[in-house]
Amino acid sequence: MSSLMELGEFGFIQRVAAMVGGTPEGVECGIGDDCAVIDVGGPEKLLIATDAALESRHFDLEWMTTFEAAQRTVAGALSDIAAMGGHPLALLCTAAIPRTTPSDAALNLMSGVAGTGTRYGAPLIGGDTVAAAEHIMLDVVVIGFAKRPWLRSGARPGDRLVLTGPVGEAQAALQIMLTNPDLLREPQYAPLRKRMVDPTPRLREAAVLAATDHVRAAIDVSDGLYQDASHVARASGVRLEIEVRCLPETVATRLAADYMRDKAPWWAAASGEEYELLLAVDRDSVPDANRHLKKAGLNPLTVIGDVVHGEGVALIRPDGSEMELERGGWDHFKGVQG
Amino acid sequence: MSSLMELGEFGFIQRVAAMVGGTPEGVECGIGDDCAVIDVGGPEKLLIATDAALESRHFDLEWMTTFEAAQRTVAGALSDIAAMGGHPLALLCTAAIPRTTPSDAALNLMSGVAGTGTRYGAPLIGGDTVAAAEHIMLDVVVIGFAKRPWLRSGARPGDRLVLTGPVGEAQAALQIMLTNPDLLREPQYAPLRKRMVDPTPRLREAAVLAATDHVRAAIDVSDGLYQDASHVARASGVRLEIEVRCLPETVATRLAADYMRDKAPWWAAASGEEYELLLAVDRDSVPDANRHLKKAGLNPLTVIGDVVHGEGVALIRPDGSEMELERGGWDHFKGVQG
User: Fold this and answer.
1) Domain span holding position B53
2) What CATH number should be reported for the domain holding residue B216?
3) Could you report the per-residue pLDDT of B218-240, keeping only the tens digit for each?
4) The pTM is what?
5) What residues have CB less than 8 Å from A292, skipping those under 6 apart?
6) Which of B154, B306, B319, B302 is nearest to B239 (CA)?
7) Residue B256: how many CA atoms within 13 Å on its side-chain side?
8) Chain B CB contacts of A128 below 8 Å
9) ipTM value
10) Are the CB atoms for B308 and B300 separated by under 8 Å?
């Protein structure tokens, strides 16, 4: 009898999606995007998503406080709202916590949940609390609204592929943490630690861009750029061509890659939990989108490639050859995917 | 440093509720009721709640299949919608499953989630999947609607206290299961096993009663009648007097209590996960409510007591004395509460 490890996360999700009959009336988008989209009869569509994080799998309390673990989990959940071009309303949180956890650590965890929610305009309004056997687990439910939600399926040949910010820092932080954790305290690596414990969901960028109407398709980089791009390619029925030399990296990521003697481009393409947005934008509208972002005091979009006819995702080197990804993104049941 | 076990579930929730500033605009009810209530601008209010279940804590796979474990968890989540007088729209589910779980067991689990959702008009529309360390955990998010949601805080002196059905079966099932599990296969105990693996969320009763406008306050019996009644008493600022002799029990529960030489009234008052509704109903409207239920082919309400001035909950014996509850309901962090 095969185990989940062999079936894999995406094989499993496919099988589960096939169990579900039709979506109910009013539900415009169910399994298969960053949020479910529901028409509730008001002027905006309701967005809802859940995002779970497990101690020792998604976060390690030797590397961060319970507050930071919660902060990063809530940011990741809110990123799903940003990926739909939405604005958040509130969150609910189920916390499974071992009974032997010190009260202070448990209350700091919930303070991280509630505080991060409030910080991004999404107060905690409910949830559930259960006693876990061994490890902390958080499941964060985010609710939000969007007038015209961005779907993964809207990319069309001719669109530009853009990112809201640099990718690779989360992987760089992880690599340094596994090798020489003390290094992360040095100032040049501070951005890496921030990306790990306090990543920014791109809600402000989403709000500015949603008002412009230039975005055709969107996803947040949570499993790794290559893998997340593959979801967009499949949902839209197009091919995404990404120029490796255009991938935005920070100085901290390059320093870390040098230190580790590893290849930064791979990090940029495979690093998950970055929470930048990957967008397909109307070809002629990038300058206008950037004007609006600038006016709001936000960083401009970085063009990283194009949407073309075909299927799949290509990472293209300056010489025109395709980069093969030895290690792709993350599969929860298989571990790192081949 | 104190641990969560000493702080207790309700102490913990109180501290967390205090962390949250105000509720956001449109949120009419946050932490402290069965569902959060949100005004989304449409004709009905949006209801949302989460309900988590952990293997070995909420269910034991030696006693039931993964399908049944999921079925019971989803029913419990939908019960929160019934407790608000609402009708469900859809559900999301986060499943944490160990990688070594056989694919069949994992897929049966999700089939239980999706199938039970569809059965009650709440298709699965999203969620998250993560690899658990050791035990399965399900976190079910239910979304629904209600025109005028029933709150815990609406009970007024003079109201009648009623139940939608018998209580005690869940405790009876648990006691038999711990003592002589084979007994549950005998036909006279079949209702106990059903209550354990396939409890009925009272959605049909809620729909009929919501149309009558007779219900003032509501909660579902999930932690134990006494404890759940205490939540209503506190939220409404009233005292609930329950006549022990009026508590509806089934033959199967009485047989089990005889077999165990235990006191069935205690089971009725402390048994959790029953998923019957405890309602405060306008005093003169019980007959009319029952007429509507009968017309819909549903069982009548059982009057179990009264709402009076004061505070707390009293379990009153036929001789007028108050029954002390040696063991109350369930506290996740303390275990059974004193």
Assistant:
1) 4-146
2) 3.90.650.10
3) 999 999 999 999 999 999 999 99
4) 0.93
5) A208, A209, A211, A212
6) B306
7) 35
8) 50-52, 139
9) 0.90
10) no
